[in-house]
Amino acid sequence: MELVYSESRERREAAELSDSELAVRAREGDMVSFEALVVRKTPAVVSVARRIVGDGEDARDVAQLVFLRVWEQIARYDEKYSFNTWLYRIATNLSIDFLRSSRSRERAHGATLYLVRLREEETSSQTTGAVEESELTRLFQTVAARLTGKQKAVFVLKEMEDRDTKEIASILNCGESTVRNHLFNARRILRREIARICPGLLEGRRS
Amino acid sequence: MSVPCGTVRDRLPSYLEDALGAEDRREFREHFASCEACRDEIARIEPSLLFMRVIPEEVASEDVSRILSGVRAGIALAETERRVGRSRGRIRRRAGALASAAALAALTLVVPGGGPAARHPREAVAAVPILVAPAPGFSPVTQPATSGTFPADATIYDWNPGAASEEPRVVWIVDRSLDI
What we know:
A: mainly alpha, B: 3 strands, rod-shaped
């Protein structure tokens, strides 16, 4: 009983610490702090992974790999830098790796077929407002299948996660001009794919 | 709405060029999220910005628990693999040490006649300062060996029945680092 009490007290204490403080404790071998970080950061990691890999179940698998990677590399964590940036770097890299795998390519292909069917079924009266959130999510995964992993990651981090260009450059370990190039190319490809796959979406706004 | 629609639409080119400051950018996005008219207008100019509206997926507490369990299992597996890897390395090293010890034992196991006068081949092999047991009797006869040939915490026991006995003299080598 004492052990349970003590453990839950440690968890309560851990919940009050900052990300960086928890990471430092985890680096010193404190598993309670490490697990507190996992619990705290899982929603953010799943969110970014979901947007990059395109599937909720895959995103949860990626999140698990992300935290295992964090645990493996926690000795290298330097508290002078943002824990979030470090975590996002791991999450983004693993998501891009996952996206490159044949499994995710197959899933993207399946999503494309779904969208083609969707377009055939829908009328030209479809407008931005008529597109439900879930359809918008599916549309994004379909059109974004044409992006490279880096382009998709930059678009997700910038436009959907609202991260600063400087931080994205740090996450992806590249220059800010490279981030902007990826962003502009991503937008251009997405524009083209939306017009190709879902022309009614834009025509409705032009009338 | 913090800023008027006209201001937001004026800021669009700067937003698209990634030239807005942090505060202007925040206002732009807040307005975009709450004003459908501006959303439609901006999406007409830059359709990819439609996806700014995609809401992040909710992560249920059961999912968090499942991920945490998976991470724990992954860590336990990695720890086990690491331990097994270390054990394998240790076993390889011990096997080498055992082979050396076995070679030594083979040389010294049976020393006919025994007795302090015998010059033991082990001295030549291991160059370990081995004290010879007072004959007759059984005794741990050495302190831990210091030669590279022996494991550091090996002890040699010497059964010396005495020169008069017909029994052979027997020497054991016990390596305490071997916990098998």
